[in-house]
Design a protein that fits this description.
This protein has nine helices and eleven strands. Strand 3 and strand 4 form a beta hairpin. The longest helix has 18 residues. The strands form three sheets. Strands 5-2-1-6-9-11-10 form a seven-stranded mixed β-sheet. A two-stranded antiparallel sheet has the order 3-4. Strands 7-8 form a two-stranded antiparallel sheet. It is α/β, with parallel strands linked by helices and 279 residues long. Helix 2 packs across helix 5, helix 3 packs across helix 5 and helix 4 runs antiparallel to helix 5.
Length: 279
């Protein structure tokens, strides 16, 4: 089966699924997988364990996930049919398509925002692919990402039900990550995948949803976890040292990073994205 993808999402590890699965395979007898900062569920959608736990604090990504769980393909087809009949040029990737994109975005936000959350989630799934960088972003009145000269997301019935089946199998939480750690910290034969907001050790960064994330609090929280940990972040000798004060960690470099938002780093400061993992 090809890799499953729900939506593009800031910080998604979709492009590193194979790297991560290679590390996951080192751990034997795993029965519980915890995707603690699950985002678009790109990792949870592409691994298989007896018990799959997904968590993300962003209520809108949870909305999209639940929309697949609670609807059928005919509901998605209803959105496709309306777009086809009323916004015929939306996939043309030109200025006419741009105008239709904004008209379509506004129409569905008004239609579903206060009435049908499941259909709203499906609409988010469809429209976000045509936005800038095909990225998902919402505001107080619904989806608000600008037009990116891309095509809307169209999937067939087979792919819809592949996504639905996998998402339905997840135990889904919409909580602060520390609450999930408290619930499952002593779980035996567990593998924890952690993809938190990237930040320096001494900066309180805000995610795109303005939730506070403090690195030192993060280290304190993961110290409670008894299972195996695979953790993505930028590479830092200080971070590696702190992790090894908890237990034995190793790391592998993924790529050189172009920037680190929201922390502002000097141009001559080289950052590398890596995977830390317990040995």
């Amino acid at each position: 089966m090809e890799k499953l993808r729900l939506i593009k999402y800031p910080g998604s590890k979709y492009n590193y699924i194979d790297n991560l699965k290679s590390i996951f395979s080192n751990y034997q007898n795993i029965t519980t997988f915890v995707d603690l900062f699950g985002g678009s569920a790109s990792i949870s959608l592409n691994v298989e364990y007896d018990k799959m736990i997904y968590n993300d604090i962003d209520k809108n990504i949870i909305l999209i996930i639940n929309s697949f769980i609670n609807t059928e393909y005919d509901d998605l087809q209803e959105i496709y049919d309306y777009i086809e009949n009323n916004y015929k040029h939306i996939n043309a990737k030109n200025d006419i398509a741009k105008n239709e994109y904004y008209e379509c975005r506004n129409y569905f936000n008004l239609l579903y925002f206060n009435s049908n959350k499941n259909m709203l989630g499906l609409f988010y799934f469809v429209i976000s692919a045509a936005s800038i960088n095909s990225m998902f972003r919402t505001g107080p009145n619904g989806f608000n990402q600008g037009y990116g000269y891309n095509k809307i997301r169209i999937i067939d019935k087979t792919e819809f039900y592949q996504l639905k089946q996998k998402l339905t199998s997840l135990l889904i939480y919409n909580q602060n990550y520390s609450n999930v750690i408290e619930t499952y910290k002593n779980t035996e034969n567990a593998l924890w995948f952690l993809d938190p907001p990237y930040t320096t050790e001494n900066i309180n960064s805000k995610t795109y949803k303005h939730n506070q994330f403090n690195y030192n609090d993060f280290i304190e929280n993961i110290s409670k976890i008894k299972g195996n940990i695979v953790y993505t972040d930028y590479f830092s000798e200080n971070k590696f040292k702190k992790l090894n004060e908890l237990r034995k960690f190793e790391y592998t470099i993924l790529r050189k990073m172009r920037n680190l938002a929201p922390a502002k780093m000097s141009q001559d400061y080289e950052l590398y994205e890596c995977i830390y993992y317990t040995n």
